Amino acid sequence: MRIRLGYVAIALGISQGSPNKTTTVLNLTKIKDKKDQLSKLRRLAEENLATQLRVMRYNAAHHIQVFRITSQLIPLATHPVAFGWDYCEDFRSELLAIGDIVKRHELRVSAHPDHFTILNSPLEHVVEAALADLRYHVNLFEAMELGAEAKLVLHVGGLYKDKAQSIERFKVIFQQLPDTIRERIIIENDDKSYTAKDVLTLCQEIKTPMVLDVHHDHCCNEGIHLEDILPEIFATWGSQIPKIHFSSARESANKRAHADHIAVDEFLIFLNIAKKCNRDFDVMIEAKEKDLALFSLMEKLKEISGVKVINEAEIEY
After folding, report:
1. Which segments in the chain show pLDDT lower than 70?
2. Is the pTM for the entire model greater than 0.90?
3. Where are the chain's structural domains?
4. Burial environment of residue 204 by CB neighbours within 10 A (0 to 12, 13 to 18, 19 or more)
């Protein structure tokens, strides 16, 4: 089986590789003129997009085909201070250039709206804010001319004292989403509330792919072994290549925190479980050292019997 490795948002291997430049609403509102406020946001967005283009070129040069684009490319895009700003039109050529690299090099890109993007909240204004955030992400992908293969990773959301009812509320909202949003959503198990089995059952019912987060499964598990459900998790992807998230725990009291790098022995344990599925898959590395953690893991894998290195970010096992 072939496994491609990717990383999240920021390239530490190049100078100024963070496309996350932003500002706070408090600082922005210190600027009294509305036009000047938008000018500041435009300058930040312009810098982010230029950095993102460099990062995508860097990824392509190093054969890194799996990448998560930051949600902060356009700062405060969904906040009322930016209402009326057509950022996709302002940066049409920059967004098209990013999309062109993605398509030309067959990169697999996604985004992960933050933890405030909650579809199963019982509060209408929270759901409305989540929909606005999802529309923002879809706007960017559409402006890049990327199809539904560019996905949005979501968690199920909160428990709200009743897990079963909260899952049902997610299903209802999910089915009401516009096709342009719904077709991009993939759902991940989390580290506190919704186990891999919970999310697998949900994804099977609503017919959408599941992203297995292996570290989250270690943190939030009710006795189900991955080897028993991994074939079903991969099956939710149909003919698409499944994708998982992988991180190692930081040595601290908070077992949910991510380490700087990936423990190769932990990664091999998962590879041996996955090998029984006999299916190619992609891995999003969620380590603090980003691309450097990817390269470090690849160096360690070179020494492992049974691992064939294809390029800087892909192996066969």
Report:
1. 252-253
2. yes
3. 2-316
4. middle
